[in-house]
Amino acid sequence: MLTRARRSTTDPFVALTGEMDRLFESMFSWPPRLHVTEAQARWFSAPLNLWEDDQNVYAETELPGVKMDDLEILVTGDELRIKGKREIDLPKDARVLRCERGSGSFERMTNLPSEIDVDKVEASMRDGVLTVTLPKVEARRPRKVAVKALAGGK
Description:
Layout: H1 12-28, H2 38-45, E1 48-52, E2 56-62, E3 71-76, E4 79-86, E5 104-111, E6 122-126, E7 129-135
Antiparallel strand pairs: 1-2, 2-7, 3-4, 4-5, 6-7
C-alpha cells in the first residue's frame, strides 16, 4: 500500500520513486503483484486540480468509491493534505481475472499559493468529485487601492 504524498506526476524523481515502491511491493506481497496499471498508479497519486480567484483557492480531485468516513482533509496555513482509502470488496472464493481499479490508502499533499483561513474551509463531494474551498486570509487578499487626484502641480 502506498501512503505518501506526491507533489508532481511529471517529476522524474517521483516517477522513479513510484516505480521502486511498486517493485518492492510486488516482491513482498502475496499473491505477488506482477503489474500495476496506469489507472492504479493514478489512483495512488489522487490527481488534483488547483485554482484560485481573489477570495479563495479551490482544490478538486476525483475520488470515486471513497466513503465519506474514509476521507480526511487537513489544512494548515498554506498546505492541503487529503488522505483516504478505497476498498474493493471481492467474494472470498473469487478468482481475479483482471484488477485495474486501484484500491487501498492514499495521501495527497500540496502547498497552497497563499495563507488560508482554516476555520472557514469547506469541502463537498458530488458524483465522486471532492471539491475543497479554501478562503484566503483577509490580509492576503488583493485589495484595490483608489488613486486620489491632488490639486496643483506635482
